[in-house]
């Protein structure tokens, strides 16, 4: 059987009766019967690609696909940018938020720096030095590294890269697994203060977030059919991210969660004033009949709801810092001032929707729930995520546990005295 040779295609500049000239790419496409059909594709105009070299880069991904069955030893050299382009065309994840993140990392970081490099010319130390100097948080650098690692994995699977080991696997990022800021965990009293400052439907959304530990994308995408009040359960099966409805984060995220009678009553009370929609959205914006955008709720209502409008008279904190206790009015507006016994000034200025999920995990610990139960309630694929990423012990629990150790240590001393 004769093996096909590498196909380079033909790129020419074609004049048009109207508008600027265009770059035309001609190639052959094999059929199931072994025949070859001639094809023509318009790459773009000369305004988009000012030189022929730029137009050739635009068709690299198509060439990789056309030559997918060509033996590697006969193939031309492949650039990292061509791998990225083919990945974006063929294998970008369906979930909107994931696809958006991958596309952003490729467009803003990977292709501008490494797009013109041949795969075999990219070395781990050069990538490591580049990542070290990027003006990003360690966690963000880790995401960029992960996408670059994925590009090499795809190149290997497409038989365009034959190294035994992915070179990006050798790249290290110092502090890549560390957080810049520790997650906030609320006490019951602090949560009650937050709820008291909110109006509907945000109050009910926050109560669902804290009672069930749902992600805010899952709360925004809830429909009335998801609730089974007879069986006291709720099916989490979709998400709403960036104005788009899609699947939940992972397959483990799609699951039933228990619906307590107290929370069921809150939801039923909200149903009496909720905006009716054809899709049955639980939290629909009356202006659009579509789910609310959680990011806007966080920015406009969740964070500012307990912030000072003037300098705090108790601790001197600047305006915009989270406060709890009601104080005097200023300029005709009610002001909240700090209560120093409850929290350090400014600690809760960074509160967000995920705060309630972290707090939910911490409160599960307080109830003594087994770790496997906590994992399933959090709907995590790995129990390590439940144990290491989410949750912090409450101060009272740590004090009580530490006190028992101190008593064990000091008891012999007291007895001898």
Task: Please sum up the structure shown.
With 417 residues, the chain is α+β, with helices and mostly antiparallel strands.
Order of strands, widest sheet: 1-2-3
Second-tier CATH architecture of one domain = Orthogonal Bundle
Please mark out the parts with pLDDT under 50 across 5 or more consecutive residues, or reply none.
305-315, 317-348
Gap between N and C termini:
96 Å
- E-strand count: 10
- If you consult CATH, what is the topology of one domain? hpI Integrase, Chain A
Listing every helix as H and every strand as E from the N terminus to the C terminus, the arrangement reads EEEHHHHHHHHHEEEEEHHEEHHHH
Shape: globular
**How helical, in percent, are the residues?**
40-55%
Average pLDDT number: 78
Tell me the number of helical segments per DSSP (H or I, 4 or more residues long). 15
Q: What does the radius of gyration come to?
A: 29 Å
Task: Provide the structure class.
Answer: alpha+beta
Give the class-level CATH name of one domain.
Answer: Mainly Alpha
What can be said about the biggest beta sheet? Answer: 3 strands, antiparallel
CATH superfamily of one domain: Intergrase catalytic core
Q: How big a fraction of the residues is strand?
A: 5-15%
């Amino acid at each position: 059987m004769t093996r096909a040779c590498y196909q380079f295609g033909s790129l020419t500049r074609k004049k048009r009766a109207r508008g600027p000239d265009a770059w035309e790419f001609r190639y052959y496409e094999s059929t199931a019967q072994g025949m070859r059909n001639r094809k023509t594709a318009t790459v773009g105009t000369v305004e988009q690609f000012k030189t022929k070299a730029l137009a050739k880069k635009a068709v690299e991904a198509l060439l990789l696909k056309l030559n997918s069955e060509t033996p590697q030893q006969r193939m031309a050299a492949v650039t990292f940018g061509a791998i990225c382009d083919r990945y974006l065309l063929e294998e970008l994840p369906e979930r909107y938020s994931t696809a958006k993140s991958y596309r952003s990392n490729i467009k803003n970081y990977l292709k501008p720096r490494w797009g013109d490099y041949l795969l075999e010319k990219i070395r781990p130390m050069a990538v490591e030095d580049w990542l070290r100097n990027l003006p990003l948080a360690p966690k963000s650098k880790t995401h960029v590294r992960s996408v670059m690692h994925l590009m090499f994995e795809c190149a290997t699977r497409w038989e365009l890269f034959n190294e035994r080991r992915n070179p990006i696997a050798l790249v290290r990022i110092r502090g890549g697994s560390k957080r810049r800021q520790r997650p906030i965990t609320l006490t019951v009293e602090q949560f009650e203060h937050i709820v008291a400052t909110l109006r509907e439907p945000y109050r009910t959304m926050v109560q669902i977030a804290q009672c069930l530990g749902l992600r805010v994308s899952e709360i925004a995408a809830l429909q009335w059919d998801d609730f089974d009040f007879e069986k006291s359960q709720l099916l989490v099966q979709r998400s709403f991210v960036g104005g788009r409805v899609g699947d939940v984060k992972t397959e483990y995220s799609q699951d039933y969660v228990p619906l307590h009678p107290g929370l069921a009553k809150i939801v039923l009370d909200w149903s009496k004033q909720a905006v009716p929609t054809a899709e049955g959205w639980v939290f629909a914006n009356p202006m659009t009949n579509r789910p609310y955008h959680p990011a806007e709720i966080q920015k406009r209502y969740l964070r500012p709801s307990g912030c000072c409008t003037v300098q705090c008279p108790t601790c001197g904190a600047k305006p915009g810092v989270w406060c709890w206790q009601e104080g005097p009015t200023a300029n005709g507006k009610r002001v909240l001032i700090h209560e120093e016994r409850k929290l350090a000034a400014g600690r809760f200025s960074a509160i967000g929707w995920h705060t309630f999920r972290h707090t939910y995990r911490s409160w599960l610990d307080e109830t003594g729930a087994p770790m496997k139960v906590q994992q399933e309630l959090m709907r995590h694929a790995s129990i390590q995520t439940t144990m290491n990423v989410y949750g912090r012990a409450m101060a009272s629990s740590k004090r009580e546990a530490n006190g028992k150790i101190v008593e064990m240590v000091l008891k012999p001393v007291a007895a001898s005295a």
